[in-house]
Amino acid sequence: MPMHLNTRDAHFEAEFRALLGMKREEAEDVDQAVAAIIADVRSRGDAALVDLTARFDRLTLTSGTLAFSKAEIAAEIARVSPEDRAALELAADRIRAYHARQKPADESWTDATGATLGWRWTAVSAAGLYVPGGLASYPSSVLMNAIPARVAGVERLVIACPTPGGAVNPLVLLAAELAGVDAVYRIGGAQAIAALAYGTETISPVDKITGPGNAYVAAAKRRVFGRVGIDMIAGPSEVLVIAGAGQDPDWIALDLLSQAEHDESAQAILITPDEALAHAVAAAVAKRLESLERRAIAGASWANNGAIILVRDLDEAAALSNRIAPEHLEILTDDPEALGPMCIHAGAIFLGAFTPEAIGDYVGGPNHVLPTARSARFSSGLSVLDFMKRTTIARMTPDALAAIGPSAERLATSESLQAHGLSVRARLDRLNRQG
Amino acid sequence: MPMHLNTRDAHFEAEFRALLGMKREEAEDVDQAVAAIIADVRSRGDAALVDLTARFDRLTLTSGTLAFSKAEIAAEIARVSPEDRAALELAADRIRAYHARQKPADESWTDATGATLGWRWTAVSAAGLYVPGGLASYPSSVLMNAIPARVAGVERLVIACPTPGGAVNPLVLLAAELAGVDAVYRIGGAQAIAALAYGTETISPVDKITGPGNAYVAAAKRRVFGRVGIDMIAGPSEVLVIAGAGQDPDWIALDLLSQAEHDESAQAILITPDEALAHAVAAAVAKRLESLERRAIAGASWANNGAIILVRDLDEAAALSNRIAPEHLEILTDDPEALGPMCIHAGAIFLGAFTPEAIGDYVGGPNHVLPTARSARFSSGLSVLDFMKRTTIARMTPDALAAIGPSAERLATSESLQAHGLSVRARLDRLNRQG
């Protein structure tokens, strides 16, 4: 049974806080094992990758076969059906079009003192994308990570994807090709992250690593952070549906279950002012669960982490949504554009009954890598900006330095940083002598 | 003696790699102590803050005196000289003007299918700024952290600053006032970070914590990351000066020493194609060091971490600069605008002989919180964006869903996510029945 809350209840606040504080995931303590794996890859390079891949993925590689060859990729891709290819191409095109609009602009201006100021955006030179193996090997995630990197202008873009027993998802390789990935290495786990961060004889190091992974991958990303940039460590996925009267309970049930079927620790929450709808959705979820392929997972997620919250009105729904700061927020009301702007903490918002969250997972255009675990309060989904960085630029003229230099000198003195002050003073003295 | 390298030498590459790999800072292992402090603040709140502040800062506080009162702040600020105030105001105005241009734009558009797509930027609701006590209590850093937060639209902005023995820098309080900070708490160390992240009876939790600190502060920020957002953990500061023939060796020496005087682990590097200039700078550094107040620190930094690299030409200088990815890059050449665009990895660039790096520390306008330790390859200096987050927005019309929904359904099926597919299919079926 999911939690049932009602804002009119006296104990609502305590229950809502319990929901917010719910710990849905136990962190596995794999840090020592990961540290050893990283040290091994740093010291033995390719040889360590070959050994670790034999042990963990039951696959015998050599330096020469760490990467898929062009022929291997072509052969795998040839197995993809035309329908799957068309769907993936449509997704890639839409994701590319959306992210192309995110490219930031350089700026440069001259202020009243004559100083030229501004900034310049440049791409990270090389990026590595981790793609999990097995069941969680999602071609859509390849597109969502690789396309923003390419749009940013990353020169070298590689994938690490474990292939347990040699098995690979042909759609992953097709997605890599559609996104313009330069190489796909059949390595996984902490050893793959170490190879991407530090490099080996065969694999050049990258500057940024993104992409989801298991506890070993997450721990390895934390460890190499600083040496390279990483994306956020994603937690279990979440959806919040705000629904008004008159919405279809079956559609809402399916949207909740789309989240729940990912993972037992996923969380699906419905907030509605309509008690009848709340009951209808609960019934529809139970009904749909009966025939769902992943009913064990989805059922456990819904029972343990799900919630239905009855509110007085939609304003209250928006206020609660801001406290939850959901990864995905669906607004199914008569006028979703009116409520949307009141929801200020959310990774992605889906407006109206014809925008199920699953659209955003695949073909909507926006990124599906989004902040989880209430981190939408302070962070954003993956974007082109994650593969770029900004260099600030300043140029003083003699006049500009004469105008603002004395203040810099004064502040340097107040901070007891004498050389800072002298570096300005030496120039001002020259200008004064010339003046 | 700083390292002397020459790209014409056979062993240059090995020496340059040694320079790049130089470990300038030993990480203190304070993680266990920090974990205990955080747990104490989480369980005992204000009482823990009072006890820890008595122990570490020799200062007796109560819940009521954790924050400076308005009267205390006014009394401290009254001690600031008019000249210092004017300098700080000029700095604040220039930093505000620069950062105001960083505010990102929301976007919304309708694509060919009729889908409305876009994104919306919103501010983090509450931010906490850590300001070190004692010698490293820099008013300029208060401005550099607090002003971007205010420009972003952060509603509640507070400072934590330890006041050992009760001592506070009046300029820090003035900077806080000029930047529009809402409260200043006289707490420091890991306990301050814990209070900002988790809250106590007196201190409401924030969503984002920025600002420099010692090993305890850095370890605490790492630990609360995820619960709140943090800025990057800054390493020792660095400057790279690229200088062409004809530049003033004394100015360059002072710029190198501005960096070196921060910290023994700071790094100052000169790259020049002009051997005579290289010698003249080395001599000028030695001469300036004789009379510098912080000559012990600056001398150790220059001797242990400094370097002079002789190159064939300025193109080679830019290429090496990109491998170093310096926090600060000064380009002192006849045509710095020509070389600037070739330098693609740098936190901040200072163009021309009249733009000493110290200008950027105080009054230039750009932020002085910048990526260290080669992380300019993948990250940027502090900006307004660090206090904002982006929510992506999508709205499908029935026509849009009919156009792209089948591809989403197909991809969901290929990823074995049945409910995802059904959530789209249920809507498409309705449309087909209606159509």
From TrEMBL, chains A, B:
It catalyses: L-histidinol + 2 NAD(+) + H2O = L-histidine + 2 NADH + 3 H(+). Its cofactor is Zn(2+). Keywords: Amino-acid biosynthesis, Histidine biosynthesis, Metal-binding, NAD, Oxidoreductase, Zinc. GO terms for cellular component: cytosol. CDD domains: Histidinol_dh. HAMAP family: HisD. Zn(2+) binds at Q259, H262, D361, H420. NAD(+) binds at Y130, Q191, N214. Its EC number is 1.1.1.23. Binds 1 zinc ion per subunit. Pfam families: Histidinol_dh (PF00815). PANTHER family: HISTIDINE BIOSYNTHESIS TRIFUNCTIONAL PROTEIN (PTHR21256:SF2), HISTIDINOL DEHYDROGENASE HDH (PTHR21256). It comes from Neotabrizicola shimadae. Gene3D superfamilies: 1.20.5.1300, Nitrogenase molybdenum iron protein domain. It is an enzyme of class 1 (oxidoreductase). The lineage of its organism: Bacteria, Pseudomonadati, Pseudomonadota, Alphaproteobacteria, Rhodobacterales. Catalyzes the sequential NAD-dependent oxidations of L-histidinol to L-histidinaldehyde and then to L-histidine. One of its GO terms (biological process) is L-histidine biosynthetic process. Pathway: Amino-acid biosynthesis; L-histidine biosynthesis; L-histidine from 5-phospho-alpha-D-ribose 1-diphosphate: step 9/9. The active site is at E327, H328. This is Histidinol dehydrogenase. Substrate binds at S237, Q259, H262, H328, D361, E415, H420. One of its GO terms (molecular function) is zinc ion binding.
